[in-house]
Amino acid sequence: MAGDGSGTPDGPLPPADDADAGADSGADAAAAEGSGPPSPPSSSSPPPKSGKRRRLFSVTLPGCWGALLFACLSFTPSLLPRGGLLQGLICGINAALGYAAGVLAAWVWRAFADRGPRRPRPRSWTVFSISAVVLFGLSFGFGQYWQYQIRRLMGVTDYNVPLAVVSPLIAALVFSLLLLIARGVRGLYRRLVRLLKRWIGPRAASAVGWTAVAALVWAIVTGLLLDGLVGLANDTFSLRDTTTEEGAHRPTTTLRSGGPGSLVPWDSLGLQGRNFTGTGPSAAAIGKFTGRPATEPIRAYAGLASSDDTEARAAQAVADLTRQGGFRRKNLLVVTTTGSGWVDPAAVDSFEYLSGGDSATVAIQYSYLPSWLSYLVDQTKAREAGRALFDAVYDTWSKLPSGQRPRLFVAGESLGSFGGETAFSGEYDLSNRTAGTLFAGPPAFNTLFREFSDRRDAGSPEVQPVYKDGRTVRFANDPAAEIPPADRPWNGSRVLYLMHPSDPIVWWSPHLVYSEPDWIGQHPGDDVLEQMVWLPFVTFWQITADLPFAADVPRGHGHTYTTEYVDAWNAVMRPPDITPQDLGRLKDIIAPEK
Fold first, then answer.
1. Is-contact 410 437, C-beta < 8 A?
2. Predicted TM-score of the model (pTM)
């Protein structure tokens, strides 16, 4: 076998002239791809159309080795458990990437060797076939074992055995589809080059052809596919935004937006706004928990339909908050929502219970899209919403007499934490302008989160960093345990980041393509397998595939934050007379066992 595994010592094939390069015969295709020996011309040779079909479905030996390697690596553990359908999809995508890498590696090798492609020996395909069965079988077996371990770590019991068994077939279908798409793009390029050669030289035709095809593919992917799908999703979810979920009722109190005397009509709040103001603990429920008379919490909200722009919505929400008497409460919480305007009820309910109901919460909607899609396309809107709402609240709050101001808190989950951060320049700004901050599941691209984590104290791991001895900013995987550094003072305003080691929202980054992050090289966390390793390209796609399912795991793992809010708010707010037993009872209220 030749050095690149793609040919034999028979010598390079003779170069084809322009006419031969333009011909789509099966023999030329096999020689160009290195997929097999060409058939000698004869009267029984298949017509060109049959040759085109062989060319479309032919594969190269180097490409197949790359596809096999990447397909096997797709079974290495990621952050979350995955079913057979998702595993097949990831395996197929990885195989397509590996095939491209193998073809590229062979092309580079031939360029350095200064020769053309060679036909592989028949036994080369035999060796590959046997290796493929053995390696893929072993990888599949280890993959199922690792998936079992991940499910056991997270307490996941659902497992579809038939889908797991057919996942290799799903992978093969995905790989074939991606290969056909790539072949179609290549065919378009070659046709364009042949056309351009009528007017310009071969090198110029090749350069212009690649540029034109790349631009066309980019326009299709970003314009027709991405923008079209986002537009369709926006239209679909805007219709859903007009509905009201079961259990959410129009408030009968003046202390909620959408209720009597509200400056924000009920119909303009949107689906999540109506969930926010139409639910929540009552004064009686809070009093039952505290054992003392409680106050009815205030909730103010403005939806996309409430005003035309972000600043106007923020101003309207603050105006309604003022009407309700929110600035006369002891505790005031500013929440930046996620996606379609969702406010995590566990976060706000915990805040209201621990404050004895003497609290007010305000939020605004900035998108119709669900959280995972907003995470990709609505980052700018989240930034604008977070800054506009806090600035509007702070403008009114700062004008109050110092002795009559409520304690000002800030919170946000996922993309909401990203938007919430944008109102502040850094640690001192957070400390000076708030009484406390709680951000859960912060994306890796959060500016302040990235700054605090990257500049962590020496010796502290990325999964739970320590910043400036924890004087203001701290990080917790499990706030029920001691939040490090437990032996250092945590005075004044407290800023707390909640982040599960298995949360892909926290760890996903484009840098995963080419750079190993510290959180993998170090101890990965209590709910992440030690066997997880970083692999170029592969890890990036593994974590990317985890993103849409980040919240589809039991609480305490992935992107599911529920009872953690109880301990987190207790650490940030420091309410008096709250015992560990009280926190346990509140957790049962926030997330009762099913």
1. yes
2. 0.84
What values do phi and psi take at 510, rounded to 5?
A: -60, -25
Q: Which long-range contacts (CB under 8 A, 24 or more apart) does 284-289 make?
A: 285/589, 286/352, 286/353, 286/356, 286/357, 287/357, 289/353, 289/582, 289/585, 289/586, 289/589
Q: What is the largest CA-CA distance in the chain?
A: 100
The whole-number pLDDT of residue 219 equals 81
User: 51 with 27: CB under 8 angstroms?
Assistant: yes
**Complete edge-to-edge strand list for the sheet that includes strand 298-302:** 298-302, 359-364, 331-336, 407-413, 436-440, 494-498, 473-476
Are 276 and 382 in the same domain? yes
Task: Assess contact for 516 and 489: CB atoms under 8 A.
Answer: no
Q: Are residues 521 and 551 in the same domain?
A: yes
Task: Give me the pLDDT at residue 594, please.
Answer: 54
Are 479 and 495 in contact by the 8 Å Cβ rule? The answer is: no
Q: What is the three-state SS of 86-151?
A: HHHHHHHHHHHHHHHHHHHHHHHHHHHHCCCCCCCCHHHHHHHHHHHHHHHHHHHHHHHHHHHHHH
In a domain, 226, yes or no: no
Cβ pair 526, 503 in contact under 8 A: no
Same domain for 336 and 374, yes or no, is yes
Pair 170, 178: CB distance under 8 Å: no
Measured between alpha carbons, how far is 518 from 451 in angstroms, rounded to an integer?
15
Q: Which residue has the tokens 């990447």?
A: 70
- Considering the domain architecture, whether residues 336 and 443 belong to the same structural domain is answered as yes
What is the block-wise mean pLDDT of the chain (594 residues), using blocks of 10 residues? 39 34 35 40 46 63 94 94 91 93 92 84 90 95 94 87 91 94 88 89 88 86 69 72 89 96 96 96 96 95 93 97 97 93 96 97 90 74 94 97 95 95 96 97 95 95 95 96 93 96 94 92 86 89 89 92 97 94 96 74
447 occurs within a structural domain: yes
In the chain, the number of structural domains is 2
Contacts (Cβ under 8 Å, ≥6 apart) of 330: 355, 358, 359, 406, 407
Q: Is 11 helix (H, G, I), strand (E, B) or coil?
A: coil
Q: Is residue 21 included in any domain, yes or no? A: no
Query: Are residues 579 and 548 part of one domain?
Result: no
Structure tokens at 243: 């509905």
Buried b / exposed e across 136-175, counting CB within 10 Å, b at 16+? Answer: beebbeebbebbeebbeebebeeeeeeebeebbebbeebb
Which pLDDT score, from 0 to 100, does residue 160 have?
84
Give me the residue label for tokens 């195989």: 95
* Sequence letter at residue 74: S
The tokens 């760890």 sit on which residue? 507
Identify the DSSP state of 437: E
493, 575: one domain = yes
Q: What is the pLDDT of residue 484?
A: 94
Q: How far apart are CA 432 and CA 419, in angstroms?
A: 19
Q: How far is Cα of residue 49 from the mean position of the Cα atoms in its chain?
A: 44
Question: Do 375 and 426 belong together in one domain?
Answer: yes
Interacting residues of 191 by C-beta distance below 8 A, sequence separation 6+: none
Q: What is the DSSP string of 198-248?
A: TTS-HHHHHHHHHHHHHHHHHIIIIIIIIIHHHHHHHHHHHHHTT---TT-
Domain range for 62 is 58-199+509-558
386/432 same-domain check: yes
Task: Decide: 18 and 202 in contact? Cβ < 8 Å.
Answer: yes
